[in-house]
Structure formats: structure tokens, C-alpha cells
């Protein structure tokens, strides 16, 4: 597997790569990962991720300072690294998680060696562009060039996947690609603990990178407009470049005493935050799936999400939460109020619906589908976007 971002990075692509690799190891496969070194120390290491020992080839990387944690491999060295690792490992298949640097090198070198290449797209240039130094008037052109560049690498691949049907349609529309598979990142819901105890407080939770693409400012402004009698508390779990800016915003809006910025937390602390929350809120408008939302649903939380990209495939308005008009602070505040003032019976109904709607995203289905792609077999995309009525029938 080739990944331009991998643990200890905290993001959806890195989490998916770890979970997929660990699941494949548990099924008896030998998995090697090429990823940027997160320090000056590089080479081949045995690392534990998701409870499995993975063979990780850490290649020398540089820090991208416009971003708070991103490191990158020099593009003109990516093929040399790939050639060396492929000749050492001699894999049956290569699975790239990004086309940008490491994935590009692996795809090209694997193709010359006759090795099957599978790609998963987690890329949204609209998210990445804000961390460049490009002036705004050039960004639309840069995004178009970025998608054209992605297509060049993806054309080398035998199969291309992305986490949702909406994401697949978006990728096909942005490029000249066809036949993109929609395969959920998958989740092991049994690792999360729903709580059906009677609500004692109103706690709103956000989990994710604290950066501009997540539109966390919209959530803070919405919380500031809630009825004070609700005594709603906001917990923001994650780190990022906008931490100080958003802390100041919370202070300016008078909700600093009700807003907690935890920074990065341990896996146990994260799961406890889900269990203890009343509602999960995600104002992001460019999610290809949102692992955090899947984790929240696995924890039995109702979700209030922006009606954008892939989030409507997870959040069914009125069933396991509500969708709000993207960037509409008043609409978000209204939808949060609806959940926070719901009766215990209504909250329980939404919680149980979240658990039902996340069930088709079981990680074992994802692993089986990728195994078939690795073997070169034809696959039928797993059906994950199923309404409660369809499940009942």
C-alpha cells in the first residue's frame, strides 16, 4: 500500500489505510506500507497499528510548512523509492491511497513490472488548495489541473475506488474516468459503546481536523445562537492550524466557557467522548465519507450534518438526525435545538436508527471486496446506502 499520509497523521485517509491493512493482516495476508517518515528516521520498521503488526517502509520526507502536520516525499525521488521497495517485496498487488507523490511512483513502477494496481481516491483538491500559497484567483485553475493530473495516474490502475457512490460520481465528473467503485471505508462498530442512559446534559461533539475545510466556525456560531436555557456544551476533539483562531472566535461570541478544545486525544478518550455526547455535529461540506461520522453512528449518536457531498448518505434527516443547509448558521442552530430538546424516547429512536444505518458499513464486507479486487475478480459494489424502510423489507 502506498500512502502520502499515514499514522501518526490523524485524518480519514490515514485511518482507512491502517484499518484496511490491519484487517488484511488478520486474514493472513502480508501487507507492506510505503509512507513518509514522520521524522528524520527512515527505513523499514515493524509498527503496531489497529492492533496488528504492519511492515512500514518509511521514506525520507520533508515538512510542508503551510500545513500544520503534512510531510511529503520529494516527487523526483518517488519512483526510485518505489522501485527499490517493489524489487525487495515483490508484491502480488499494489494499492495506492493517493496519486500525489508516493502513489504516483508506485503506480508507475508497478505497471512497468506487470503488477496489478488498485487505487482508492481520498483526494479533494478543494480541501488541499487552502494549504498552498496560491492566490485565490488561481485556485480554480489549479483545481482543474490537479484533477487532470490525478486522472493520469488513475488510468494506470486496474480498478479505482472511493468510499461512496456520491464520491464516485464526483470523481468521474471531475475527470474522464468511468467505472469508479463505491466501497465504504468500513468500520468495526463493535469497538464503540452506545449509551441509552437518560440524558443529564446537552453535549455537542465535533471530531476532526481543526482546519478551514471543516467549517468549525459555523458550528461555534450556531452554538452561540442556541437558547441559553439549553446549557449546551461544545466539545471539539482534534488538532489543527485554526485552533487559536477558533478559540478566539468562541471567546468573542461569549461561548468560551461552554466550548472545550481537547486537541488530539487517545483512542480510549475519543471513544468515551462519543459515548458521553448527546449529538454529533459536522459542518464540513467536502466529505468523501467521514469516518468520524461513522464512528459517531457506531456510538449510537444522532447526527446533525451539512447537506453536502457524502454526508446525506449517512445522515437520513428525521431518522438518525438532521441535515442542514451548508454554512447556514441559523439552520444548524435550529437542527441542533431539535435534537437537544427531543424527548428521551425520540433520542433513543434516533440512536437506534444510527446503529441500524451504520450496520451495512461493516469492515468485513470492505475487506472481502478489496480482496476480490486484488485478485482481479469482478465485483459488485456493496450496498451501504440503504434506508430504514429498505432494511425492514
Task: Describe this structure in a few short sentences.
This protein has 393 residues and is of the alpha/beta class.
How many strands? Answer: 15
Number of helices: 15
Q: What is the CATH class name of the largest domain? A: Alpha Beta
CATH architecture of the largest domain: 3-Layer(aba) Sandwich
Largest sheet: number of strands, sense, barrel closure: 6 strands, parallel
The largest beta-sheet arranges its strands as 12-11-10-13-14-15
Average pLDDT score: 91
- Low-pLDDT sequence parts: none
Rg, Cα atoms, Å: 21 Å
Strand content: 15-25%
List the helices and strands and how they pair.
Layout: H1 12-26, E1 32-36, E2 43-49, E3 52-59, E4 62-63, E5 71-72, H2 78-89, E6 93-96, H3 102-112, E7 116-120, H4 125-128, H5 139-154, E8 159-162, H6 165-174, E9 181-182, E10 203-207, H7 216-224, E11 233-237, H8 243-252, E12 259-263, H9 267-276, E13 279-282, H10 291-298, E14 303-306, H11 311-314, E15 321-324, H12 329-340, H13 344-358, H14 363-374, H15 388-392
Amino acid at each position: 500500500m502506498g500512502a502520502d499520509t499515514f499514522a501518526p497523521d490523524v485524518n480519514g485517509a490515514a485511518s482507512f489505510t491502517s484499518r484496511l491493512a490491519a484487517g488484511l493482516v488478520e486474514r493472513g495476508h502480508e501487507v507492506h506500507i510505503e509512507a513518509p517518515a514522520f521524522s528524520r528516521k527512515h527505513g523499514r520498521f515493524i509498527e503496531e497499528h489497529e492492533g496488528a503488526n504492519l511492515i512500514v517502509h518509511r521514506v525520507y520526507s520533508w515538512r510542508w510548512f503551510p500545513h500544520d502536520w503534512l510531510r511529503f516525499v520529494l516527487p523526483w525521488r518517488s519512483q526510485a523509492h518505489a522501485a527499490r521497495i517493489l524489487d525487495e517485496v515483490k508484491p502480488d498487488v499494489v494499492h495506492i491511497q493517493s496519486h500525489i507523490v508516493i502513489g504516483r511512483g508506485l503506480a508507475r513502477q508497478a505497471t512497468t513490472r506487470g503488477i496489478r494496481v488498485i487505487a482508492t481516491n481520498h483526494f479533494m483538491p478543494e480541501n488541499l488548495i487552502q494549504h498552498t500559497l496560491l492566490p485565490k484567483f488561481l485556485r480554480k485553475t489549479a483545481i482543474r489541473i490537479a484533477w487532470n493530473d490525478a486522472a493520469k495516474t488513475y488510468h494506470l490502475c486496474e480498478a479505482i475506488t472511493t468510499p461512496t457512490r456520491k464520491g464516485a460520481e464526483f470523481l468521474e465528473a471531475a475527470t474522464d474516468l468511468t467505472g469508479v467503485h463505491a466501497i465504504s471505508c468500513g468500520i468495526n462498530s463493535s469497538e464503540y459503546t452506545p449509551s441509552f442512559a437518560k440524558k443529564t446534559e446537552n453535549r455537542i461533539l465535533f471530531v476532526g481536523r481543526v482546519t478551514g475545510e471543516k467549517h468549525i466556525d459555523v458550528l461555534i456560531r450556531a452554538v452561540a445562537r442556541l437558547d441559553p436555557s439549553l446549557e449546551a456544551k461544545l466539545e471539539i476533539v482534534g488538532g489543527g492550524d485554526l485552533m487559536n483562531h477558533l478559540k478566539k472566535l468562541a471567546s468573542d461570541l461569549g461561548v468560551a466557557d461552554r466550548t472545550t478544545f481537547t486537541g488530539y486525544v487517545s483512542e480510549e478518550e475519543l471513544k468515551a467522548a462519543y459515548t458521553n455526547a448527546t449529538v454529533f455535529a459536522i459542518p464540513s461540506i467536502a466529505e468523501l465519507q467521514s469516518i468520524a461520522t461513522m464512528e459517531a453512528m457506531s456510538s449510537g449518536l444522532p447526527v446533525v450534518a451539512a447537506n453536502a457531498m457524502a454526508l446525506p448518505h449517512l445522515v437520513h434527516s428525521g431518522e438518525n438526525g438532521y441535515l442542514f443547509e451548508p454554512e447556514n448558521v441559523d439552520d444548524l442552530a435550529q437542527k441542533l435545538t431539535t435534537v437537544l430538546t427531543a424527548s428521551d424516547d425520540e433520542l433513543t429512536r434516533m440512536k437506534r436508527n444510527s446503529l441500524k444505518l451504520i450496520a451495512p458499513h461493516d469492515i468485513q464486507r470492505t475487506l472481502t471486496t478489496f480482496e476480490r479486487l486484488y485478485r482481479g475478480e469482478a465485483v459488485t459494489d456493496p450496498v451501504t446506502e440503504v434506508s430504514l424502510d429498505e432494511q425492514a423489507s
